[in-house]
Every structure is written in C-alpha cells, then in structure tokens.
Amino acid sequence: MKARMLATHVALPVLAVAAVSAQAHAADFDWMRFKGKTVTFLANNNPVSQALLTYKADFEKLTGMTLKVDGYQEQQMRQRLVTVMNANSDEVDVFMTLPSREGEQFAAAGWYGDLTAMAKNEVAKDYDPAGLSQALLKAATFGGKLTSMPMNIEGPIFYYRTDIFKKCGLEAPKTIKDVEAAAEKIKACDSAVTPFVSRGLKPAVAYTFSNMLHNVGGSYIENGKSNLCSAKGKEALDSYSRLLRDFGPPGVVNYSFQQISALYRSGRAAMAFESSNELRTVMEGGARLKDTGLLPFPAGEAGQVPTTIGWGMAVSSHSKQPDAAWYFVQWATSPEVQKKMALQGIAPPRPSVAKDPEYRKWIDEEPVRKEWQAALDVLATKGSSEVGYPIIPNPESREFIGQAVQDLILKQKPIDQACADADKALDALIAQK
Amino acid sequence: MSNTAATLTQDRQRLEMAALSAPAVIFTVAMIAFPVVYTIWLGFQTFSSTGKQSFAGLANYSKLISDYEFWHGLWITIALFVLSLALQLVFGVWLALVLFHAKRLPGIVRSLFISPFMMPPVVAGMMWLVILDPSLGAANYILQSFGLPPSDWLASPSWVIPTVALIDSWQWTPYVALIVLGGLQSLPPSVYEAAQIDGASPFKTFQRITLPLLLPTIVTAAILRSVDLLRFFDIIYITTQGGPGNASNTLNIYGFRVGFEFFNIGYASALMLTLTAIVFGAVLAFNRLRGAVAW
Lengths: 433, 295
Fold this sequence. Notes:
The structure holds 2 protein chains of 2 kinds. Chain A is 50% helix and 12% strand. Chain A is an alpha/beta fold. In chain A, the strands form 4 sheets. Chain A has a 5-stranded mixed sheet with strand order 2-1-3-13-6. The radius of gyration of chain A is 22 Å and the shape is globular. Chain B is an all-alpha fold. Chain B has helices at 3-43, 59-66, 68-101, 107-114, 121-131, 138-145, 160-185, 189-197, 202-230, 234-239, 251-261, 265-293, and strands at residues 45-47, 53-55. Chain B has a two-stranded antiparallel sheet. Chain B folds into 2 domains: 3-43; 68-293, MetI-like (MetI-like fold). The model of chain B has no long low-confidence stretch (mean pLDDT 89). In chain B, β1 and β2 (53-55) form a beta hairpin. Classes of the chains: A alpha/beta, B mainly alpha. Chains A and B meet through α4, α5, α12 and α19 of A and α11 of B.
C-alpha cells in the first residue's frame, strides 16, 4: 500500500485525535512525574540507537529517571527479545522494532503495548505527534493500535560514481533498463571496478529486491497466493539476479550492507543499491564525498515505488511501568531529539525537522547530502513499507525470496523452477494461521 | 571414647558436610537438569508464528523425518565434522611432532604456533571473512600474485564447507597439537631405546611405536573436538549464516534460525535434542574406540 494512501485513511485520523487530546493534557504534563524510576531499553546497536544514546544523560536529567540500556547487534537483540517475551518477563520496558519485518508477528503475539492511549493521555506540549511521518505511523499500526513511534526514516537508495559515469559517457540512470545498460557499458569501459552491487545474502535480499519488484509493477501476493512466478515477479527476479550475477562482485551471495559499503567506499564499485543509512559509512574518510551521486532506485514500468521503512520504539506489553516507558519513547521521538539525531546523519521521520534551518544548513554543506535528502523526500512521499510478504511469518518469507534470488545468481535453477519452488514454500507460509 | 560414640561423631560429621555442600550440589544439578528437562518439554510443544503454544506430542519429531532441511543439515554437519576432524588430527599430530623435536624453538615461536585457539571464534570468523572476501580479501590477491586463479571461497556452494573446515582447522589444530604434545612427552623412552638398538628407521619408529602409543591421546583429542564440531555454529554464523543458499546450513544453524528467527521454539528444541543425541552417540563411539586402543 502506498504511503500517502495509508496516511490519509488511517494514521492521520489517529494522530489528529491524539494531537487534539494532547493539547488538553499538555498543560498538566510533568517530565519529572516518574522521577527515581528505572526504564530498561533493549536497543539494536546500530547508528540510530548510537545517535540517540549520545543524549542519554539529557533524558535522565530531564526526567530524573535512570535509563538502563541493554544493547545488542540486531539479530541478538531479537533473540533476547524472543526469550524475554516468551517468558512474559517485565525485564524490558522499551525495545526497538522494525514494523516492516516483525510488526505483524509481534502484534499478533501481543508483545507491543498499545501506544494510542498513551499518545492521547501523556503528551508534552512540544511533542507534536501529528508531525511524525504518517506513512511510518501507519506501518506501525496493527488492528487499529499504534504499536511503535518512528525513530528514523530509511530505505535503499542508488549510489553511483559520477566520475566513472562521466568517463564512460553515461548519464544518471532514469530507469532500470538504464541501470542495466550502464552496468554493461562500465564493464567494458572500466574493468577495474565492479559495475553494480547490492544485497545477495539470503535473509538480506528482500530489502532491496522489494524495491525492484514494486518498480516493475509486481506484487508479492495476489488472490491469497504467492506471486513470484507472475510475469512481473519473474521480470524482477531476472533483472535483480542478472545485475548481481553478470555485473556484481565475486561472492555477492554473501553481501549485505557491510560488504557493499566497504566495496563502494574503497572505490571498487560504480553503482551500489544500499540503505540510505549507509551514507555516513560510505562517506567515511571523504574519498567518495565529491564523486558520488544519489538517487531513489530508477523507475520500472510502474514508476518509482521505493522501499521506505524506519526503526520504531515500542513499549513492551509486559512492562510494569508502561507510562514511564512511554516518557522515554516520547522524549526519544520528540522534535528536539530527532533534530539532534538528524545532525548526526539519521534521517528524521518528521518533515518539520527536515525543514529546520540548522538541519538545512548541514544538508547544504555538501551536494551529496542534498541529493541524499532529495532521495529521502521521494522515499517519504512515494514509499511502500512492504519488505517481503505482508504476513505474520514475514521474516521466514524473506528466506524464500532470498533463496530464489541466490538460485538464479548461482545458476542452480532456471527461473521457472526457482520461482515455482519459492511460490510453493511461500504458499504454505501464507496458508499458516 | 567408645566405638559407638566415635561412629556417631563420624556420621554427624558426614551429615554436616552433606548439609553444607547440599545447596551447591542442588544448584549445580538444577542448573544442568532444568534446561535439559525444559528443552525436552518444549520439544513436545508447537508454537505458531505469533508464539501461541499447544501440545504437539511427537509431531515435531515426525516432522523431522520428512523435513528436507533437517537431512540436508545433518549431511552438512557430518561432512564438516569428518573433514575438519581429519585435518585437525593429521596436522595436529604433525605440529606436535615438530614442537616435540624442535627443542631449541624459542618460546615465543611455540606460543605463536598455539595462539589461534586462544582467539575468540567470532574474531577469527570476522578476520577470515575479510581475508577470504573474493573482491577485497588478501587470499585471492596472494593467489593471483602467483598466477593462480581466484576462488569464491565462502561464496561458492562447492567450496564453502572445505573453506569453513580450513578456518576451523586453522583455529583448533594447535589445540589438538597441545594435547598430542602432552601425550608425546609421557611416552616411555625405553621403547625408543629398544627400537634404536634394533635399527628401526625414524619412519618405522613413528609407524610402529609412536603412533600406536599415541592413539589413546589422539582419540581423546578427537572426542573433545567432535563435541565442538558437531555443534559447529559461531564461524558459520559470522561468515555465511548458512549460505550461499543452504550450502553451509548445519543442524545447529538450522535449529537456531527455526527457533530465534522463525520463532518455532518447539521444532527447534526437537532439532537440538536430536543433535544432542548425535553428539552423545559420537562421544560414546569414540569412548569405546579409546577403550580398544588403550595400552
């Protein structure tokens, strides 16, 4: 579902109600209400939480609460969360979550606290819940319940080397066909660089592949059945795997964001399709600062339907102090904190922050930042948060998408068999109640 | 003091000692027993994707029989086990002989030889992931400088298992060598003196004396490594996450993903208990072998 449509139909009314109620309650709002309490935050140790936790002391000073941070790498964080939630433990008050990945699953399991009521009852004057990205709020709304507040906005974007494009007589690509043609030309023009790189690691593929599928006009499910073997599905599978097989680096089947960023930053890739979050990593050392162009992924037959997701902060349904936990969520997703995070390169999920003069000044310092923000604006307005199948076992569905792509990259199966095998496994997942 | 009084005192002392040590013993037994019993119980449950739990009887175990990924994982686990163990035993014995005979080798060099197994597997995995990267890694650079073709290493479905076995062997061969070196140092010198008097060549001495006498030590090393190899996880998780495709999806990796990524804790428990039974079986078989080769 498109972001704009989602925003209009569901999230806006929810937030409008919240905003009106907020005005009534803002006057009574006291940040010191839970002074002396300790809130435990289960964090994914990624750039988003790192930027946020730089200001941990500010939160503790503002509220008189203690913030206990339990930080892990992404997969380990989920592992810890599964253990804690299955044990109905109140050890975790607030946790980071990717609604596009596990939202359906965690909501159905009842792990998310309902933030709709909290957003109505306890909101500071300057919080402005309606100012948050409506698309992301919708993506975090399940069964009418708001389950998390967005921390950032991100999605895969297209990084390309302007110097190599110039040398090879190429223009910035406008369509997927242009990307394929550019890869072909770069392969002949500059054999020292990898023409194109994106995610090939099985569980990571869905993040970038979904953008390709939606751009060509494909969908994951039609009439309750997996749709990878449709003409559009096969077109997306074929284009994505061919780009990686014929123009990607050796060993691309093990590539996720770390390898892609390292390859591009070192100057050994001409085009990279990777997360907007990787800008800071890619620009480290400054070598790519002046020779990189950034775009949303070029259009297919259906135009540009970029993948747009964001990390969210959820309150555990087992927390014994959800109100205190909400204070932390509110502080972390407030305009003031999100502006500070934005100045560290975390794309803000608030249009108002993106327009803030101080942030604009930071953006205007480098042309590449301007292009980054322009790409993010497209993500925010046109984005789809469908990464993998919109079903409860979404993480498992990503395995089968990745498997089909790897089968094609490694030439282990013809396309008809690869998509049919994936569809068979995915139909079984879809049928699961 | 009469005998009866002395016996009573001894009994009381025993009781006191038992009472004092009981908390620690109970705690230790509970710490071992509880996870095992809990996992067995979980193996009889089924969990939906939303975490809803219900009793499944033996359904998880019957699912194993028809699960292609289980049999594939078992095959990968066995292939990795056989290849790694063979490499580690052969090179471990060789390294032990080198260290045993090179008595003038400086301490620092000896320490370097045995240092890999002191490295955390996660660090070793990360290091080899970088070295073996087909585009940026040093391994292909070295191969190409000698005019040899580059390899995809961990990214090739056919090479991933030998490559992982090589990484594990790099790390754990020194450990095997250390155990074997201890065995070598405890061999009786008299048999070597007798062999020397009889004019046995160094190879014959190794073949007929050293190797048979070392066999119990080698089997002990094999037992210790077998347990680790059958539960192989960390290096694969760091380097390939079971890929490319499912080419390095060992039973342990498969069980982890079923449990912690797909949240089917019941089936994951059944998988892990099956793996535990395989590990026990291997240890029992090696124990019997150790009994047979003891001297």
